[in-house]
Design a protein that fits this description.
The complex is a heterodimer of chains A (437) and B (465). With 437 residues, chain A is of the alpha+beta class. Chain A is built from eleven helices and 22 strands. Chain B is of the alpha+beta class and 465 residues long. Chain B has two domains: 223 residues, 2-Layer Sandwich (PmbA/TldD fold); 231 residues, no CATH class. In chain B, strand 1 and strand 2 form a beta hairpin. The chains are: A alpha+beta (437), B alpha+beta (465).
């Protein structure tokens, strides 16, 4: 889309609306895919679009299109639709400087298909010894370059570009009576993904998963890996979502600044300002400067994830977490998620378990009653710990409980946290969980 | 864009593809135009109400060696440039040429009939209708604290032109309505919902869902007082909606040939004729079913839709293919190559996947069960190779052959091989429902999921202690 399109739209809207936001997105993706270790496709996706939100006669509507020939029609239809809309009870974002940095790496922006293929071959090379008759190695390498232009009637205006580089690996093993998959990925705004570390993690999980062992007892301590913890936090994130709080369906609405709702050693932070991370950007999709927001500290809820609507509804200030697609209303979304470290080395955490579980992946996350905090998930990838060592993979087990109750049963937090894409999480040990099989 | 414009577009695309033909082994151009309306209420708020227009395309190219070059883009212009971009992607590849199963070149125009054309219904009517349902849900009970009422229609024009001479245009209208209500009592928050959608009824679907409003409100409130099901292994009876999710997750994904075609062990395990389930168990995938959510006339590689028998009398009888997996396994293409929109290349997807009805009534399924769970509706499901998990929306205990007290948070999981072998009965009341499937970053793909009531032995249900 041309550089002046947003100016033309803004000018048009200024004449026809009480207030407006308009934004233009430009996205270029390049992906190289390897299946069974062989290059199978190289794919480029170009996605451009323009979105808007208008207030006419005090009422709001949203619209957007990726079809440049439909732009005028889209603007007209959106203005017309405002007649049905809700009254707008908040102000659009005023002019302000950005919060986080715009993480743009020319090295990633300039990656071409040849370069991605070379990266893919490198990753395949590190792991192809594991592939064999029953084991298939798939690798995807992606480079993405995004541009965002924004203008609203309150004087906010900006233009930034970001990049993202991502590598994902899957190793699938088929044997009679046992099919298992190992997935690992990492992403970064720049070209600095540590392939050695990624490949090592895949290799370690694969080797540990070769042996299937039973779990003798089910009332055992559970250690969640960063990957497992990410899933475990889903109900908590739903409770912290400002929209759910405003709608009266979050169990956390009344505990802001109050008593602890989880273990007092737990601190959870949403941070859109960390250099080089995929969730980092200077402004949210409503033009509000992004920030580092402490959601939970010492086990107590300190802040919700807010957009303009939910902030106004709750008498608070937006935390700069609004995300939107082209033609949808903005809603809060977390950016980069960080859980503060504790004081126990991982080696000690594992060594300290006589019989227990190490859980890396939970299935069906989000498919259930998220808001109540209740969860019940089959363990997609889990390992038994016996006498302080990982003994092998377990199968056919389910973990169920309530996240608020169970995060009060934290018995140890790792003294290091690990960046994987947009999350930085430690291993966490929980006791007294309900495992069935 | 009206029919005539799309025809002119088709002519331009054919010219561009013809010009590219000497330089490629194979090329295809897929273009789409979407006209959509969304109305969404969330609690007392109108979240969205409006029309959106979108258009774009995806080009795939194969050169002498190697695999796909793909270029996806917005807008319908500059097709020669897009073909060049796809060729550039293909050019980085060498190695063995990716094989494709033959399909006869086809020229066709298929306009699927919509009973009540939603394009002729004014936005105001759609908004007011959903506003009415939303108000009725909010007022149904003082414990109902939130709602989610959404209407979505989408008229899609698709064009596929290939260097083999295919030129296929399809038009279809999708219309779906969703009702959801959350009830709250102190810390206890429960949710109930209903979805109704197909590619036949059009705006009629928005009218039909009126009958479901009261049921959704009632169920959300009932769930407040239902205890969590106690974890354990139980004989279960699944209602048709949940049984459809079960077969989709437990078997449907593993019948997608791209999961197994690269792995010799996987191919050996999924050998045709292998017994998976009892003799009375039959499963199909069929995009030709009239007006269902997952139906299409041609897939996104120009292969005509046809029914595929996946399981016949309990034995593996077929799988779902695209042209590559069919060539790889020496089988026929089945018309299951789908891309959810123009931003993606097609991959193997289910269309309408269903368990054929048996002869038992619901009483016959419940009768033999001393203590079990009747699990209904669905929150969702997931497959991880041989393991699957799916969540019921609500349910009841079964005691001594009768439906007993309501329970909630019923999440069923298992191993596909063991669970299919543990199916004990199939009901006579097959129903198709609409669902959304996620795979390979393409979500949600509209799918039909169908089944009658089903009884399965020894299913692991996770739950509260």
């Amino acid at each position: 889309m041309s550089g002046n399109r947003i100016d033309a739209v803004a000018e048009n809207l200024a004449r026809r609306t009480d207030a407006f936001e308009t934004f233009e997105v430009e996205q270029r993706d390049l992906t190289a895919s390897f299946e069974a270790g062989a290059l199978r496709s190289a794919e480029t996706v170009e996605r451009n679009g323009l979105g808007l939100r208008v207030v006419v006669g005090g009422r709001m509507a949203v619209g957007g299109t990726g079809d440049a020939t439909a732009l005028a029609r889209t603007v007209d239809a959106t203005i017309e639709a405002a007649a049905f809309g809700d009254r707008c009870a908040f102000e659009f974002a005023p002019q302000a400087a950005g919060g986080g940095p715009a993480c743009y790496s020319p090295a990633v922006a300039e990656m071409n298909a040849d370069r991605l293929v070379a990266v893919g071959r490198e990753v395949v090379g590190r792991l192809e010894d594991l592939a064999g008759d029953g084991v298939t190695l798939n690798v995807r390498v992606m480079a993405e370059s995004d541009g965002m232009k924004f203008a609203n009637s309150a004087g906010q205006r900006f233009d930034y570009r970001t990049t993202r580089h991502r590598v994902s690996v899957s190793l699938q093993s088929f044997a009679e009576g046992d099919i298992v998959g190992i997935w690992e990925s990492d992403s970064s705004a720049d070209a600095g993904i540590d392939f050695d570390a990624l490949a090592s993690r895949v290799r370690e999980k694969f080797v540990l998963s070769r042996q299937v062992v039973p779990l003798e007892r089910t009332d055992v301590p559970v250690i969640l890996t960063p990957h497992g913890l990410d899933a475990f936090l889903a109900p908590l994130m739903a409770g912290l979502d400002g929209r759910n709080v405003a709608d009266g369906v979050s169990p956390l609405a009344d505990v802001l600044g109050g008593e602890p709702i989880v273990d007092t050693r737990l601190t959870v932070i949403d941070d859109a300002t960390v250099t080089g991370r995929p969730g980092t950007r200077p402004f949210d999709d409503e033009g509000v400067p992004t920030a580092r927001t402490v959601l939970i500290e010492g086990g107590c809820v300190k802040n919700f994830l807010l957009d303009l609507f939910s902030a106004a509804d709750l008498g608070l200030t937006s935390t700069g977490n609004a995300a939107r697609d082209l033609a949808t209303s903005p809603a809060p979304e977390h950016s980069n998620l960080v859980v503060a470290v504790g004081d126990t080395p991982l080696a000690d955490m594992i060594a300290g378990v006589k019989e227990g579980l190490l859980i890396d992946y939970l299935m069906g996350v989000g498919q259930g009653n998220l808001l109540a905090g209740d969860y019940s998930n089959a363990i997609g990838l889990g390992f038994a710990i016996r006498d302080g060592r990982i003994a092998g993979r377990v199968k056919g087990l389910t973990l169920a409980g309530n996240v608020y109750r169970d995060l009060a049963r934290v018995t140890a937090i790792e003294n290091a946290a690990h960046w994987r894409g947009a999350t930085c999480l430690p291993h966490v040990r929980l006791d007294g969980l309900s495992v069935s099989g | 864009m009206n029919t005539i414009d799309f025809q002119r577009l088709a002519d331009r695309v054919r010219e561009a593809v013809a010009a590219a033909r000497p330089h490629v082994r194979y090329a295809e151009v897929r273009l789409e135009r979407h006209d959509a309306t969304v109305v969404r209420f969330s609690g007392p708020h109108l979240d969205a109400a409006g029309r959106s227009f979108d258009a774009g395309g995806s080009v795939r190219v194969l050169l002498a060696g190697g695999g796909w070059g793909v270029a996806s883009f917005n807008g319908l212009e500059d097709i020669p440039q897009r073909i060049r971009a796809a060729r550039d992607c293909a050019a980085v590849q060498d190695g063995d040429p990716l094989p494709l199963a033959d399909v006869p070149p086809t020229v066709d125009l298929v306009v699927r009939h919509v009973e009540e054309d939603f394009r002729e219904v004014p936005l105001a009517e759609k908004v007011e209708r959903m506003r009415g349902y939303n108000a009725r849900l909010l007022e149904a009970d003082q414990r109902i604290v939130d709602t989610d009422v959404a209407y979505a229609d989408r008229y899609v024009h698709k064009l596929l032109v290939t260097s083999e001479g295919s030129c296929i245009r399809q038009e279809a209208g999708y219309c779906q309505a969703v009702l959801a209500a959350s009830a709250r009592s102190g810390e206890n928050i429960q949710r109930a919902f209903e979805v109704l959608g197909d590619t036949r009824g059009g705006y009629r679907n928005a009218r039909l869902i009126a009958d479901r409003v009261d049921a959704v409100a009632r169920r959300a409130v009932e769930l407040l007082s239902a205890p969590r099901v106690r974890a354990g292994r139980y004989p279960v009876v699944l209602d048709p909606r949940l049984a459809g999710v079960f077969i989709h997750e437990a078997f449907g994904h593993l019948s997608e040939a791209d999961h197994i075609c690269e792995n010799p062990q996987a191919r050996a395990m999924m050998v045709l004729g292998r017994k998976f389930a009892p003799d009375f168990f039959n499963v199909y995938d069929d995009a030709t079913l009239e007006g269902q959510w997952g139906s299409h006339a041609y897939d996104d590689e120009g292969v005509r839709a046809a029914p595929t028998v996946l399981i016949a009398q309990g034995r593996l009888s077929g799988r779902l293919h695209n042209r590559y997996t069919a060539a790889r396994l020496g089988e026929q293409p089945t018309g299951n190559a789908c891309a959810i929109n123009y931003q993606h290349a097609p991959i193997v997807r289910m269309t309408n996947t269903y368990v054929a009805p048996g002869r038992s009534g619901l009483r016959d399924l419940l009768g033999p069960i001393k203590e079990g769970v009747y699990a209904c509706g669905m929150f969702g499901g997931q497959t991880m190779l041989e393991d699957f998990s799916f969540s019921a929306a609500h349910g009841r205990m079964i005691r001594n052959g009768e439906l007993a007290e309501p329970v909630r948070d019923i999440v069923l999981s298992g191993n596909l091989f063991k669970t299919l072998a543990s199916i004990t009965a199939v009901g006579d009341d097959m129903q198709m429902h609409s669902g959304g499937c996620g795979k390979g970053g393409q979500s949600p793909k509209p799918v039909g999921i169908g089944a009658p009531h089903m009884a399965i032995d020894n299913v692991l249900i996770g739950g509260g202690v």
